[in-house]
Specification:
Length: 285
């Protein structure tokens, strides 16, 4: 299992600087965000992604995953250009955006519509040999836990559609990890690394507890159990660290808040990878 740095909060860095930062912080590679405001965007990805891969390879880094904008959830020609760029750069996975549930929607109709869109992404995956990944995200996103994710992806070919469980979001809206893992094990491709807990608000505020992201190892995730489960089933995909810390409820339930930098970013990102490496040593012993 290689540990890669999601570039969400490093949009100010050039391609070369991002590689230097990932190396400095102790990561094996990069989960590159291809989004507005970042050095690599859909409009320039065909040119810059292959260049970036050459730079990172020289720096001793991998890039097993690209992450699209959170609203890229339609299999449009624009989305197809991103698949083509990933294929040219030999990036094997692309995480697409999210489908949202709105109050009073008919859940099963929303799922049916999303699965129709997902079938379009699966066609891109087959054409370009780039796996489409869908991330678990707490809140009103479809696929807010393993059961919800399987409503979306069950029946698709795992070669083309991959599950992307996020352990921090599962700590908030999830289910028993052993049961959840059993649901998605045939599809699991990437694991998102966050940690989370519920903080008590001041007396009289409602709800009494709100979710908060924290450093890895300081929240509700049982890391030894979670990673041992992956290791015991020979999971060899990337662990993508998202470096999300100390966000309150108003932020944590959103998607696409990459313009809000967390505190102590570099030090805590370094601490996260060191913590994960120690846990992996423990579970493999």
């Amino acid at each position: 299992m290689e540990i890669v740095l999601n570039s969400k909060f490093f949009a100010h860095l050039s391609i070369e600087q991002l590689g230097e930062k990932a190396t400095e912080l102790g990561y094996d590679g990069i989960d590159i965000c291809i989004r507005p405001g970042h050095p690599i965007q859909i409009d320039n990805a065909a040119k810059l992604l292959p260049q970036a891969m050459r730079v990172w390879e020289k720096q001793g880094l991998t890039c097993p995953l690209a992450t699209a904008a959170v609203d890229l959830n339609q299999p449009t020609q624009e989305a197809e250009r991103l698949y083509a760029a990933c294929a040219e750069a030999a990036i094997p996975r692309l995480k697409i955006g999210f489908w949202q549930y709105k109050a009073d929607d008919d859940y099963w109709r929303v799922v049916e519509s999303a699965r129709t869109d997902l079938a379009g992404f699966a066609r891109f995956s087959k054409q370009y040999q780039i796996q489409t990944c869908y991330q678990i995200h707490s809140g009103s996103c479809l696929g807010s836990n393993c059961a919800g994710l399987m409503h979306l992806i069950k029946g698709f070919d795992p070669k083309y559609i991959g599950a992307y469980p996020d352990l921090g979001h599962l700590a908030l809206d999830g289910e028993d990890w052993d049961m959840g893992f059993s649901m998605i094990k045939d599809y699991i491709s990437v694991v998102g690394i966050k940690d989370a807990l519920y903080l008590r608000q001041s007396e009289g505020q409602m709800p009494s507890y709100i979710p908060c992201f924290v450093k890895v190892g300081e929240g509700c995730v049982n890391w030894h159990h979670s990673l041992r489960k992956l290791y015991s089933h020979d999971f060899d995909g990337p662990l993508a660290v998202h470096t999300e810390y100390k966000f309150d409820e108003s932020i944590i339930r959103q998607v696409g808040y990459e313009d809000i930098a967390p505190p102590n970013l570099d030090q805590w990102a370094k601490d996260d990878v060191a913590f994960l490496r120690q846990v992996l040593l423990d579970v493999m012993a």
